Amino acid sequence: MGPYLRVATLDGFLTVARQAGLDGARLMRAHHLDPADLAVPDRWIRAVSAARLLEAAAEESDQDDFGLRLAEQRRLSTLGPLSVVLREEPDLRRVLMLLTRYERSYNEALHVRMEEGPDLTAVRVWVEFGEPVPARQGLCLAVAALHGIIAECLPAGWEPLAVCFTREAPADLTLYHRAFGPRLRFGHDFDGLLIYTRDLGTDNVLADPLLRPYARQYLESIVSPRATTSTQRVREVVEVLLPLGKCSVDRAARSLGVDRRTLQRHLALEGESFSGIVHDARAGMAERNLANPGSSMTEVSQLLGFASPSAFSRWFHQQFGLSPSQWRERAMVPAEPALAGTAS
Questions:
Q1: Which of 77, 207, 100, 217 is nearest to 148 (CA)?
Q2: Can you list the alpha helix ranges (DSSP code H) found in the chain?
């Protein structure tokens, strides 16, 4: 069935749609979503349906910034129980670590990763649906939501070094400047934020140290974090090794400080195999990189550790039943015409 997300992600959709001259309820029903579910924030809906809904709304309203308009309706509380704990984390580093660790508690399709360097830190955002889905509006919403969370936790006046998008620059940047300020980068190699590493140690202005232990207990009693399993650790290593062309079970085992047999035994206990993890990692990385129009097929094949684009294409077709170029074309389609035009 694919990944799901909390319906709270669409908070304010009917309002923004009405302001754009759209019948939001009709659009939701056309994409197999019940408008009444918006009254139940903790209800889960298919992430694919939500992504296509946002693209259809942008297309019908001719508002290429529809995702940003929806982001203006967001509050920290949109994250549900996680927001209670985020408010009490001591600094920005801990806030971002919590967001990444508990990402599946609010959106199973969304991935957030913090890549910390000595001077600069990249906070990358991407989505994985397991099928070609247009996600321009969803990614704009996610980046704006991330920016809003950080801005709410830090002292007034904070700005990132850059707000990055893989998409090309839209014709009208008015709302982008209103949401993010002047530091915009389009046609970038990732979606997300570039911040100064020193900002990670900035105190969270929302935090009350006396409440922190209770907030943690509350979250852990109702939400399970992303498990730190052998499978997860191996996948993280695989995603580093694949672009280097050095992805093998022996090298992965050395990276994790164990021998080959120990690694394979741990994976077997979790019902996994090294080859299966490599396969799944490649599928996720392929979807992520094909969504970037600036990445050539040669570059994507190299990132996935294939010797040639033709080898990548053969593997991709076996995995998804279509070529990488066909996937990219379908992922660029704003909406499914049959669904978007369905009467209520």
A1: 77
A2: 13-19, 24-30, 47-61, 66-71, 81-86, 92-101, 136-153, 174-180, 212-222, 230-241, 249-255, 260-269, 274-290, 297-303, 309-320, 324-331, 337-340
Residue 344 and residue 163: Cα distance in Å, rounded? 38
pLDDT tens, position by position, 138-181? 999 999 999 999 999 999 999 999 999 999 999 999 999 999 99
Mean pLDDT taken over the chain: 88
Within 10 A of 43 (CB to CB), how many other CB atoms are there? 14
Q: What secondary structure does DSSP assign to 207-255, as a single string?
A: --TTTHHHHHHHHHHH-PPPP--HHHHHHHHHHHHGGGT---HHHHHHH
Tell me which H or E stretch contains 164: strand 162-164
Length, in residues, of the chain: 344
pLDDT at 12: 94
Q: Which CATH superfamily is domain 230-331 in?
A: Homeodomain-like (1.10.10.60)
Amino acid at 239: E
Which residues contact residue 59 at a Cβ distance below 8 angstroms, ignoring those fewer than 6 apart? 334, 335, 340
The answer on pLDDT for 191 being more than 90 is yes
Q: What is the pLDDT of residues 90-144, one digit of tens each?
A: 999 999 998 888 887 888 899 999 999 999 999 999 999 989 999 999 999 999 9
Tokens of 276: 């299966």
pTM of the predicted model, to two decimals?
0.79
Parts of the chain belonging to CATH 1.10.10.60: 230-331
Q: Are 44 and 4 in contact (CB under 8 A)?
A: yes
Alpha carbon distance 314, 337 (integer Å)? 30
